[in-house]
Amino acid sequence: METEVFDYFSALYSNADLTAPFDRAAALLRAGELVAFPTETVYGLGANALDPAAVTKIYQAKGRPSDNPLIVHIANETMAEDLAEIPPLAKELMAAFWPGPLTLVLPAKPCLPRVTTGGLSTVGLRMPAHSAAIRLIEAAGLPIAAPSANLSGRPSPTSAGHVLHDMRGKIPLIIDGGEAAAGLESTVLDLTSAVPAILRPGVITAADLVEFIPGLTEETRLPHGGVARAPGMKYRHYAPKARVVLCDQTDIYPTYKAAWRQFAAQGNSHPKIAVLATLNGLTGLAEAENCFLLGENLPQVAQNLFTALRWTDEINADLVLAERFPETGLGIAIMNRLNKAAANEPKPPTDKQGEQHD
Ligand code: AMP
Ligand code: MG
Known about the structure:
4-stranded parallel beta sheet, 11 helices, binds magnesium ion, 10-stranded mixed beta sheet, globular, 16% strand, binds adenosine monophosphate, alpha/beta
């Protein structure tokens, strides 16, 4: 299958007709096909959430385990009410954070096929803050189930180029809406448990939510190594091909030198050691090749992290050294992804299906 890329911003800025391309994308979705689209978090691989055959194509295209539920994307609150029971707290959170990078896990209504919810009686709902995503959902007039548009286990895509790399030939259309602004997937908040809990940390933190949920802390989330409450959390994610080692900022240079010596001792006299760090973390490495500047602050690091992890594959790195960040605020979400990339999270199951990832 030929994969077409539609350049949304070029069309938008040149005042070109947007109705025809979005009508075409919507027609593909209504016909049970997959369309990749931009959001403010990462790119999504979308299908009609109400069509089990279409949703099955998502799992196939990604190589994703079928017990890992999909987030359903909607364009207005009426769509949310059609799909889930909405308690008053959810209404408040929607008013405060939607459109935005917050997924709410709610009791699902029977119209939602179980394949969409990974077999669960709950559904994760989100209204994305990207005009192309909203246009697509509105044009289709359908809720769109969409996980990240990467092959399972690979770093999530934050550009149309990343999606093309993973999905070329597998899907008919990618809507190119530029670089994802946030760069990390949404915060997943479970409102179906007795005590609301963050299942996946994201740009919206416990500190942002505590005003609405007294007592909510980051510890309410799944502890490292704990029991998987969000099914997707038991799989290894974000992993580039090379081994990833996390280093405190001041340890990066000594670790780099030690690793270089170790490769040399093993007969590799010119190893490709990729270093992903802030400017301070790159101290001493001015002459080193294969350094990737993640940015100067945590929002920049979040935005660039998946691009950096994918780049280590492009250069065929032998080893990846990545800077460790303090686990507060946005640092929690960044470290969650880095720990998974470094496989410091719960080990993937050994059965064949379990080798698949998010
Ligand atoms: P992705 O869209 O690929 O970033 O993955 C979606 C994430 O949301 C996974 O970690 C899922 O486990 C989580 N998720 C989606 N729906 C639910 C749900 N009903 N219950 C718990 N977690 C969910
Ligand atoms: Mg994903």
